UniProtKB/TrEMBL annotation:
It comes from the Bacteria. Pfam families: DUF3501. This is DUF3501 family protein. InterPro entries: DUF3501. It comes from Tumebacillus flagellatus.
Length: 195
């Protein structure tokens, strides 16, 4: 399980702002082995302590947050994205520049929460979404989710045999079917999280 994030993990806002450009470049590089494109408009970012801490730090920067109580509230909210011992955590993004086209896409992908899987070897593991949107005619553009791992899947990801085996994300929505393999860099990054 990822170590909990506390306020002491955050860099003071003035210090963060001084080094932000360099930190952003490092995070862009770091996320390359954690982001998976599932097509033109959809991507999946595998989250861990480092990516979640970055999001909190960026939120503090953009919202000009310095109040300890407010920071603790956001830390509490975002900490739900940290993966547990036997799971992978991810954020699913559905993005399109044109707002009208995005609205149509989100309506077409209603129910996506029932159609996302991680295949590890012969096992097909269903994503568990933080929220399901059955009560409306569209889905949202950002989803937080977890992939619960069996012992076999976890061992498969951490034992280094992935170079010769199958690890992929499968989206089998009636309006969009995509299968995207994880490359060796993706799996190596996830294996570090699970070690």
């Amino acid at each position: 399980m990822a170590t909990a994030i506390t306020r002491s993990d955050l860099v003071a806002l003035s210090t963060y702002r001084q080094g932000r450009d360099e930190y952003l470049q490092k995070m862009i590089q770091y996320k390359k082995s954690r982001r998976l494109k599932l097509g033109q408009d959809i991507s999946l970012l595998f989250e861990n302590r480092q990516t979640v801490l970055f999001q909190i730090q960026e939120l503090a920067h953009s919202e000009d947050l310095t109040d300890p109580k407010e920071l603790d509230e956001y830390i509490d909210i975002y900490s739900g994205m940290l993966p547990g011992d036997d799971e992978l955590s991810a954020t699913l993004f559905i993005e399109r520049d044109n707002q009208e086209e995005l609205s149509k896409l989100l309506a077409n992908l209603k129910g996506i929460e029932q159609h996302l899987f991680l295949q590890v070897g012969d096992e097909k593991l269903k994503a568990v979404f933080e929220e399901e949107h059955d009560d409306r005619e569209f889905t949202t553009s950002v989803h937080y989710l977890k992939f619960p791992l069996t012992g076999t899947a976890k061992a498969y990801l951490t034992n280094g045999s992935y170079e010769h085996e199958t690890v992929r994300v499968i989206l089998d929505h009636p309006n969009l079917q995509v299968t995207t393999p994880l490359d060796a860099d993706h799996v190596a990054s996830l294996a570090k999280d699970l070690a």
